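Justification of resources, computational component.

The compute hours requested in this renewal are based largely on the per-chain cost of generating structure records like the one below. Each record pairs the submitted sequence with a full structure-token output. That output is archived, and it is also reused by downstream analysis tasks.
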Amino acid sequence: MNYVLRATCFLFSLNFLSVAFFLPSISSAWEANFSADPSAPELFLAIDKERQKLFILSNKSPLQKLKEFSCSTGQVRGDKQKQGDRKTPEGIYFLEKRLTRGLNYDLYGKLAFTLNYPNPVDRIKGKTGYGIWIHGRGHKITEFETKGCVALNMSDIAALEPGIILQKTPVAIARKATWQDKETNSGIETEIVRLTREWARAWAKKSDEFFSFYHGEKFTLSGQDFKRFTRRKKRLFQKYSWIDVYIHQPKALAGPGYVVSFFGQVYRTSTFFSTGIKRLYWQRLENNEWKIVGSEWRPGAAAMERELKGKYLEARKEELLQWIEKWRKAWEKADLENYARFYTIDAVQGSIKGIKAILANKKKVWRKVGRPQKIECKNFDIQLDKEGFLISFVQKYTSEQGYKDTGIKQLKVAPLPSGWHIISESWRKLSWPR
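The structure output for this chain reads:
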């Protein structure tokens, strides 16, 4: 029997929910209690194995149930431990693929969604098995009838499908799932999202701090232990002059003994560009520090790639415009010490090479036409460039002695570990508008 015919799974849409969860010991059944937390997704699925119910919960103040469906889980009660035990796993999972072909209609109906069981924490726990889905049924479901998947009546799974976002929609599967209609912010999800943002900043800076976010003994990635993972990353840090990491809408959900943060990710270097969904699995140590014990990366489909690329460029444009304004002010004030900080040491300005030569030329120009009185920049266009970003705009310069010129300025800017820096600059004169 092929992989498609061995499993049973499903999931639904996410964006922003808020949740406070119990974190029981690894060996106990998971009882999840949901409440408002701004760092969790707005929509998610919760499966209560004890009541054989699947709930769609919305966190849009107050936390409330949008829909409820009957479901069927594994024939044997308890959390899945090994292949063939006929149990449904407990934890936080994500919809991976949509299946409609090659399905045994009586077992799976016409539609199925795969889940990412076993996730990295499941593997750490030594759990085995695969092919856990959420799927339909060719006949009316009965309680506790599957081999480990979650089965729904066909009319119900069809009602769920419009809201599903593959790779992004979380499903919490627990022995018991409850929720409160008022906010009881445990702070767990908020703390994990904060740490996730710090992790991304450390990565972009190519800092050794990046490795401190990981659990050195538990973490593995695609068969690589932490030492091999570290060596590979450090080689890439040496290879690339800059790395830019953008994370879009990071959210977090707490599961049984762990928290998973998930987000859209853009990773750029001078020669490489990738987009997709990243998930980080965090566990709290005895000293209360959170460490990453596992991660998952799912490349984005074409539509997701376009969306993430657009969000990335939008976010970087906002940052760059604020940064350019600081550069403009330093130039306008003739503050050469501060002005120099915006350039790399070997920056090129027209035919002039190196920041020392650039500063010397500025002084020469000011002796001739006067120091700047007013510098105006408008009509910005910011695009991706292999060296970082290409920023074009109309620049109007007025000196204290009355000299004026208008031109098109182009800056090539790189997101270096120490911050934004101009690596090259060009200018083309325009006639004054009348």
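The mean pLDDT is 90. The two ends are 77 Å apart (CA to CA).
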